[in-house]
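hiii, so i know i said id send this last week but things got crazy w the move. better late than never?? heres the sequnce for the chain we talked about at the cafe, plus the structure i predicted for it. fair warning i was half asleep when i ran it
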Amino acid sequence: MKVDYIIVGSGLAGILFCEVLKQHGKTYVVVDNNSQQSSVVAGGLYNPVILKRFSEVWKSKTQMELALPMYHAMEKELGIPLDYKVPIYRLFASIEEQNNWFTACDKPNLSPFLSTNIISNTNPAIAGDYGFGEVLQTGRIHTAVLVAVYKNKLKQNDSLLEESFDFDVLDYCDTVNYKGYEAKQIVFAEGFGLTHNPYFNYLPLKATKGELLTIQAPDLKIDYILKSSVFLMPLGDDLYLVGATYEWNDLNNTTTVKAKEELLEKLKTFLKCDFTVVNQVAGIRPTVKDRRPLVGRHPEHKNLYVLNGLGTRGVMIAPYVAHELYNFIENDSALNQEIDISRF
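okay and structure toks below
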């Protein structure tokens, strides 16, 4: 069967690249290589501000302008809600943090995303006398639902091979051939599985394990995402997601007592009500040492491409890098040098 593209990986990177291909009338098949996807356990936040330092997320305006319309279109196409508009409240620990917030509000690149109103903390379940700052234009994409429903749609359209990718049977020259599929290009978007990819494993992708807790806290009663030493995200029915950890050595998707204790210790510094832990999950994030994605063409093989390294902000970055790669391949547009793999 002839298609325009073979895509390896069905996480956010692979899915968003499928969407860009669909917009341009391109055909494709996805090989789900069954790697541990960070998309399935991600919090799914989109937030244009780094709340530790009150600074702008890299290319946040461009990313947001691309991402939200794409997710809204996918909601209509898939017939499911994906985008949950939820404000983020940053809990202030001091007057100095309040002052730093106001300084950030005056910066042109941050002013659209930061409210200048300090919100008083009147919730007895939350410790803190300095109130909150509100981040605007924020929310959550339900990534686990997106991945599950999208993969099911790919199956229905006979566009999904559910198997680990077999590099031994990949043949490429003028075209790419794989198990009966002939394509013009192949794009590897397999997350941290890239470390086992013989064509791109030279790239400095670093796997980072992250763990999240789900707690039930009937007395908390908040309808916003709370950011302090960890984030608290409301899920409904008095359930909240708590995260996340960063681990660079224990690289599997098995949950650990160590991560649970770390999250609970941080949570208890500001949460003053009773709660129960009801779930814990772990996943592997594909991260890069310079905190920029890995996008581009193999230095020797012209029809082999990579789309990876989305890190902790995959919901925002995936649509941007998917468009960048498509325009690079199809329109011969130059890649942003910050994401081009030629930098390594």
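btw The longest strand covers residues 276-288. thought thatd interest u
miss u guys!!
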